[in-house]
Design a protein that fits this description.
The protein has a single domain, classed as UDP-N-acetylmuramoyl-L-alanine:D-glutamate ligase (3-Layer(aba) Sandwich), CATH 3.40.1190. Helix content is about 35%, strand content about 25%. It is globular and about 60 Å long. An 8-stranded mixed beta sheet has the order 4-1-9-10-11-12-13-14, sandwiched between helices. Strand 7 and strand 8 form a beta hairpin. The protein is built from 10 helices and 14 strands. Helix 1 packs antiparallel against helix 10, helix 2 crosses helix 8 and helix 8 runs antiparallel to helix 9.
């Protein structure tokens, strides 16, 4: 099993994956707290340095690039300084950004985190949730049609920020079926009915519970939630469950225990899961093998601070050190 998982990863560098969704820039402001602000009873942070990393759909693309694949991304940004920073970050990683649309009437989504001594104190969101206009929608659909035959699989990274519309999602599903492409969706409950017929949908338990409209304790309702959602959306469902691992609802129910040694920060772990899963399926893995690799990948990134990625070398090390397989 170990050798087979490693062999699958050796094919990652040959694969091309298209990511479609809400493009976000993550900003981290690092500093130190030595006193309380004289203006209010709040900590005063003396800023030492700042760091920008791709977030949202851009983080899924960044994870693909980190794993050696060629990533293409379709989304929308503003015409502002944050857009310049984000494009530079993506281009420097070899991610193809030609299909990202700029909208002068829209600001680039920014999530800013204030961190002191490795402790996140505050997050400030510069959000945009307006549905994209008709021209951007049409342009993006043209881009999807243009690139679909060149890629191995498609990821939809939906953060409910207005890019994933009914028309775009219908076109994605139609084109993936026509071109025999795997379609993996990182979902948001509000848009659930748009996802019907995807290859795999990867909600966390809270999202899955809302989508299935089944509420209560996870340990009591997990199977009911997963089975109801699979039937409702006509798709296999992988529920990610944090420290409890992942559970696949397909023809059978299969549980995968977590591979995380320690959990430091869960930011962006869902992007890592969907990126690794999609890449593994594209490389010929079975669904079970793909989830196992995604589990190792997620175990690596939650042990790092902030929105992080992992590499084939790191996953291979985790596999070799795992005494359970």
């Amino acid at each position: 099993m170990k050798n087979n998982l490693i062999k699958i990863m050796s094919k990652f560098k040959e694969k091309k994956i298209l990511v479609i969704g809400d493009v976000i820039l993550d900003k981290y402001v690092f500093g130190d707290v030595s006193r309380v602000s004289p203006e209010a009873p709040i900590p005063l942070v003396d800023v030492s340095w700042e760091n920008f990393v791709p977030g949202g759909a851009a983080n899924a693309a960044n994870n693909l690039a980190s794993l050696g694949a060629q990533a293409y991304i379709i989304g929308v940004i503003g015409e502002d300084q944050n857009a310049v920073i984000l494009l530079n970050k993506l281009n420097s990683r070899g991610i193809k950004t030609d299909f990202i649309v700029k909208d002068k009437n829209r600001r680039t989504i920014l999530k800013e985190r204030i961190v002191a001594r490795s402790q996140q104190l505050l997050r400030v969101d510069y959000d945009t949730k307006d549905i994209i206009n008709e021209n951007i929608e049409k342009s993006s659909i043209i881009s999807i049609k243009k690139i679909i035959s060149e890629v191995d699989s498609v990821i939809v990274s939906d953060y409910a920020k207005g890019f994933i519309t009914k028309n775009i999602m219908e076109e994605i599903i139609k084109l993936c079926r026509k071109n025999n492409k795997n379609l993996i969706i990182d979902p948001r409950p509000d848009n659930q009915l748009l996802y019907q017929g995807a290859t795999l949908i990867t909600p966390n338990y809270d999202e899955a519970s809302k989508m299935a409209e089944v509420f209560g304790k996870e340990e009591d309702n997990l199977n009911l939630v997963g089975n109801k959602l699979r039937k409702k959306l006509n798709s296999d469902i992988l529920i990610t469950r944090g420290s409890r691992g992942m559970t696949l609802f397909s023809k059978e129910i299969k549980h995968f225990t977590t591979k995380a040694k320690e959990v430091y920060d869960v930011s962006g772990a869902g992007d890592t899961v969907v990126a690794t899963l999609t890449l593994a399926l594209s490389a010929g893995a079975t669904m079970e093998e793909a989830i196992m690799l995604a589990n190792y990948a997620a175990g690596n990134v939650v042990g790092k601070f902030g929105t992080a990625t992992t590499t084939v070398i790191e996953i291979e090390k985790s596999i070799k050190n795992d005494g359970e397989i």
